[in-house]
Amino acid sequence: MQIDLTVNGKRVSLEAEPRLLLAHALRDRLNLTGTHIGCDTSSCGACTVLLDGVSVKSCTVFAVQAAGQEVTTIEGIGNAAELHPMQEAFWSSHGLQCGYCTTGMIVSAVDLLRRNPDPSDDEIRAGLEGNLCRCTGYENIVKAVRVAGKAMRDGAPRHSVAELMPIHPPVEEPPPSGEGIIPPQLQEANR
Ligand code: FES
Ligand code: FES
Q1: Ligand 2 pocket by Cβ (under 6 Å)
Q2: Ligand 2 pocket: which of 131, 135, 140, 142 to mutate (most atoms <8 Å of CB)?
Q3: Rounded to the nearest 10 degrees, what angle do helices 102-115 and 85-92 cross at?
Q4: Pairwise CA distance, residues 87 & 64, whole Å
Q5: Model's pTM, two decimal places?
Q6: Dihedral of CA 82/148/47/73: which sign?
């Protein structure tokens, strides 16, 4: 069947079988691959998007259920030219490692701050309990939400990636040889 919806502010028409999941429609039909699929069983939250402003796990929603509604994915939250404060805070607070959970985590956190602009750490943890991270240990994720909340309450200006590069430079990869990290005598022994 044909469905019409709004995705990241643009009207979209899709041919959708009734069983097509919203997560698959976004990724496979609209090429919005920032929405990740980590489990397909409603456990991990990697697929979180906003549906009419409320966070949902898009692997638990059929595309046809989104007909007539407004979907916001991580691509609609912010972009390289103008990061959302939550995206900047995850960057500056080192709230990610592999990044697989991060897009869903950010979308959930945006919804959390919409409902509670100044959450305590316990409220942040409770608000993100549907989002699992296998890497970070969560401390820096909680910190990032705290930092973003303050920036949003203060009305801090938004930044582009280019503006932030000198402030949060990328971590330099060690040279493949281990030079500068592994003592020369051990480098020799490792060859
Ligand atoms: Fe949707 Fe894990 S992929 S909750
Ligand atoms: Fe790797 Fe969260 S940063 S799963």
Answers
A1: 96-102, 133-136
A2: 135
A3: 120
A4: 29
A5: 0.88
A6: negative
Q: How far, CA to CA in Å, does 58 sit from each of 41, 52, 104?
A: 11, 13, 10
Is the pLDDT at 2 greater than 60? The verdict is yes
Domains and CATH numbers, the chain: 1-77 (3.10.20.30), 78-157 (1.10.150.120)
pLDDT tens profile 159-173: 999 999 877 666 666
The DSSP bridge pattern shows strands 70-72 and 2-7 to be parallel
**What mean pLDDT do residues 102-116 have?**
98
Mean pLDDT of the chain: 92
Q: Whose CA is nearest to atom 4 of ligand 1?
A: 42
Number of the ligand closest to the Cα of 99: 2
- In short, whether 143's Cβ falls inside 6 Å of ligand 1 is no
What is the CB neighbour count within 10 angstroms for residue 146?
A: 17
Look-up of token digits 């022994």: 189
Ligand 2, residue 135: give the atom nearest the CA.
1
